[in-house]
């Protein structure tokens, strides 16, 4: 609680300083909401700077953070432009809002204070933050998670310094608790305060929102920030407060820093600003000035993350767009496979998405049955505010189709909830009464004890609140032992593995409660490579060797390419590539230069004489992929000898040679043989893992490959060191 309260106070002070500098005075809940959000953007950016220079010490954070509230008080100035509060709430609507907010707020607070065990939270949202704190700042994590923009996580960092893991979840809860006040303020501004109450509670009570907002995730925080952009724009448009474009731009940049898929709000901001400027006929000089006023703050917050990724990962938008920005850290095929997997979560067809998102639960979380009334949001188009809300909803909703997990609806949900509320409240005569019934039904159906009455089976939602664990009457380590299988194996790693050594663990789900380096199965190029080596002895098509002899008329050339002629949903892998003339193989020379059209960083693996190592294209096979050898001098050859795993036999390969300054396709014929898996293949896999710097394997019983390790440790060349909670720790001999 202290860690989260400290972060809230510092963010609020930073935001207050900003609005004092802008000479804008907001009112009521709107003031707290926007000051907290803008302050969060500034504090997050400041934490980025501190982490970059490795000054993340508790003493530094407390000293620097403690100065901000003093500065906000010391440098206070008389109010400048005062924002109007808008229409007032009636006692009925005020009572409905306050009682519902407090009741569910108490549930949410107890849940957030419970020891952190959320999957993504302990694996990277908090897992990486704990490592940053351990190293006093950023350190390179060769993982897709290490390349994510971590705007919200930078707020977790000072909270973690004071309150450790659960403090991060309570920081996320702050965004959930403040967002309804921003939505309520918006409803008052558009002259529909009842819609503000209804819309805010529709969002606030949604089961997936309650679950996400009470753990160390970032989706609810992202929703709060993107709605803050919209509210700032509305204040600017309605009251002609030019200064409000500064926090709008700041929050647009922070949206990107929170979650890459929220970046469409920046596009919406620009279009909105241009449309208003042109409608008012303010002229192009004014438009350029406004563009600068919004763009510079956005770059201040989003730019550091883009620059960091461009430097560390050679891709400013890492971990996305790796086909556009090739790099050695993440194969494009990993991104493609994850996109395909996430776009088909639960195997739900498009027509059933509305049902599963609201009631069914196959998308890992539901927003509640009342959102089946979402088509009523179209009634809001009669109101200008409703039309704008739906326009803002669309760009934030579209990323849902690329990752249709229930929580990926959250950033767009405030806009849908507000549009639905406007549509319902605006129904003549029946609207207000129907709105009250919808809110009460939503509250009842979203209460954890009652969800089992309508929710079919397991849902990703809040379970019954464990107040004893929240207050630590049940000690944290006892709770973690009972509720998080990976907790004890993490302690085992700290006890038995030396710092700096790498552990390959295909099924370990947490970094937050131990301090050792783990390598999984898909989060990086290195992880995928290690996983393929590990499963090679277990899969006959991978363990068998497919030998190709590609014959062509003898040619003299200094450069030759092996080129794909077909399409395949797999990657191209070459274990060994050799060149021959007649019965003699061309001896390899140090002067040879090897490159490829994809993943040129690993081409030496196709020429290292390793029985199991391979070069991979790192992307799916399309015609024209090539692996090139430059001999450095003219050489004569008539054959290519290609060794691959047997699963590669379906990829058609050809040969091109450089002749007279251009590439010439050689007419070739191919003869193939299959070599059964060698008896030493498990030992060879172990050797490749060791070559990658891996000295340990941590794997739970029942996981793929665990039984083979247990049954053949001598053949693998490994020794079991310890067991904890079903996880076995093996050392590579």
Notes on the protein architecture:
With 733 residues, the protein is α+β, with helices and mostly antiparallel strands. The chain folds into three domains: 450 residues, no CATH class; 99 residues, no CATH class; 131 residues. The chain has 27 helices and 17 strands. The strands form four sheets. Strands 5, 7, 8, 9, 11, 12, 13 and 14 form an eight-stranded antiparallel beta sheet that branches. The chain is globular. The model has no long low-confidence stretch (mean pLDDT 95).
* Count of β-strands: 17
How many domains make up the coordinates?
3
Overall average pLDDT: 95
Q: How many whole angstroms does the radius of gyration measure? A: 29 Å
Task: Calculate the terminal CA-CA distance, rounded to whole Å.
Answer: 47 Å
- Summarize the amount of helix as a percent range: 40-55%
Shape: globular
- Number of helical segments with 4 or more residues: 27
Layout of SSEs?
Elements: H1 2-22, E1 24-25, H2 28-52, H3 58-74, E2 81-82, H4 91-113, H5 119-125, H6 127-134, H7 153-189, H8 193-205, H9 207-212, H10 219-239, H11 245-258, H12 264-280, H13 284-312, H14 332-342, H15 353-360, H16 384-397, H17 413-425, H18 431-446, H19 448-451, H20 467-470, H21 476-483, H22 487-496, E3 502-504, E4 517-519, H23 525-535, H24 540-543, E5 545-564, E6 568-574, E7 576-581, E8 584-585, E9 593-596, E10 615-621, E11 626-645, E12 653-659, E13 662-666, E14 669-675, H25 681-691, E15 694-700, H26 706-711, H27 713-716, E16 718-724, E17 727-732
Parallel strand pairs: 1-2, 3-4, 3-15
Antiparallel strand pairs: 5-11, 5-12, 5-14, 6-10, 7-8, 7-11, 9-11, 12-13, 15-17, 16-17
């Amino acid at each position: 609680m202290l860690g989260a309260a400290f972060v809230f106070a510092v963010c609020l002070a930073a935001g207050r300083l900003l609005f004092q500098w802008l000479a804008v005075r907001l009112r009521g809940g709107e003031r707290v909401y926007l000051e907290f959000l803008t302050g969060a953007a500034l504090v997050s950016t400041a934490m980025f700077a501190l982490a970059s220079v490795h000054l993340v010490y508790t003493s530094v954070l407390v000293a620097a953070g403690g100065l901000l509230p003093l500065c906000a008080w010391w440098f206070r100035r008389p109010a400048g432009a005062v924002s109007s509060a808008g229409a007032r709430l009636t006692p009925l609507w005020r009572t409905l809002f306050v009682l519902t907010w407090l009741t569910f707020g108490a549930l949410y607070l107890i849940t957030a204070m419970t020891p952190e065990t959320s999957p993504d939270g302990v694996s990277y949202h908090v897992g990486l933050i704990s490592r940053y704190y351990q190293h006093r700042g950023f350190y390179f994590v060769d993982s897709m998670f290490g390349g994510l923009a971590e705007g919200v996580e930078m707020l977790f960092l000072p909270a973690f310094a004071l309150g450790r893991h659960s403090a991060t979840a309570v920081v996320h809860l702050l965004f959930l608790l403040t967002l309804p006040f921003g939505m309520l303020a918006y409803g008052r501004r558009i002259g529909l305060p009842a819609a503000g109450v209804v819309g805010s509670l529709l969002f606030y009570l949604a089961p997936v929102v309650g679950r996400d907002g009470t753990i160390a995730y970032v989706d609810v925080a992202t929703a709060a920030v993107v709605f803050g952009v919209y509210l700032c724009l509305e204040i600017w448009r309605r009251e002609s407060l030019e200064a409000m474009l500064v926090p709008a731009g700041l929050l647009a940049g922070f949206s990107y820093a929170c979650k890459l898929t929220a970046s469409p709000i920046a596009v919406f901001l620009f279009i909105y600003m241009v449309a208003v400027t042109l409608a008012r006929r303010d002229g192009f000089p004014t438009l350029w000035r406004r563009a600068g006023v919004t763009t510079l703050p956005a770059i201040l917050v989003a730019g550091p993350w883009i620059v960091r990724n461009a430097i560390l990962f050679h891709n400013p938008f890492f971990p996305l767009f790796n086909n556009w920005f090739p790099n050695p850290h993440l194969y494009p095929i990993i991104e493609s496979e994850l996109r395909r997997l996430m776009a088909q979560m639960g195997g739900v067809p498009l027509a059933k998405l509305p049902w599963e998102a609201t009631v069914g639960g196959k998308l890992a979380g539901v927003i509640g049955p009342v959102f089946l009334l979402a088509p009523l949001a179209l009634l809001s188009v009669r109101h200008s505010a409703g039309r704008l809300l739906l326009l803002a909803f669309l760009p934030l909703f579209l990323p849902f189709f690329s990752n249709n997990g229930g929580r990926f609806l959250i950033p767009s949900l405030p806009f849908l909830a507000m549009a639905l509320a406007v549509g319902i409240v605006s129904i003549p005569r029946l609207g207000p009464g129907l709105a009250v019934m919808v809110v009460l039904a939503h509250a009842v159906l979203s209460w954890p004890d009652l969800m089992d009455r309508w929710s079919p089976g397991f849902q990703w939602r809040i379970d019954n609140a464990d107040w004893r664990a929240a207050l630590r009457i049940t000690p944290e380590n006892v709770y973690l032992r009972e509720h998080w299988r990976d907790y004890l194996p993490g302690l085992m790693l700290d006890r038995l593995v030396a710092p700096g050594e790498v552990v390959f663990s295909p099924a370990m789900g947490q970094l937050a409660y131990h301090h050792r380096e783990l390598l999984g199965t898909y989060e990086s190029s290195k992880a995928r490579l290690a996983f393929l080596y590990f499963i090679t002895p277990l899969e006959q098509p991978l363990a068998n060797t497919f030998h190709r002899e590609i014959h062509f008329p003898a040619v003299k050339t200094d450069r030759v390419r092996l080129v794909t002629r077909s399409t395949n949903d797999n990657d191209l892998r070459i274990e060994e590539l050799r060149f021959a003339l007649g019965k003699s193989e061309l001896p390899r020379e140090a002067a040879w230069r090897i490159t490829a059209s994809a993943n040129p960083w690993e081409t030496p693996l196709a020429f290292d004489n390793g029985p199991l190592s391979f070069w991979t294209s790192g992307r799916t096979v399309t015609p024209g992929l090539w692996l090139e050898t430059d001999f450095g001098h003219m050489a004569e050859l008539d054959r290519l000898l290609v060794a691959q795993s047997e699963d590669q036999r379906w990829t058609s390969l050809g040969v091109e040679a450089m002749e007279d300054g251009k590439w010439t396709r050689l007419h070739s014929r191919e003869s193939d043989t299959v070599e059964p898996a060698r008896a030493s293949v498990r030992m060879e896999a172990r050797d490749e893992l060791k070559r990658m710097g891996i000295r340990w394997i941590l794997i739970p019983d029942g996981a793929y490959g665990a039984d083979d390790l247990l049954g053949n440790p001598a053949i693998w060349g490994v020794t079991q060191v310890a067991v904890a909670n079903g996880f076995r720790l093996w050392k590579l001999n």
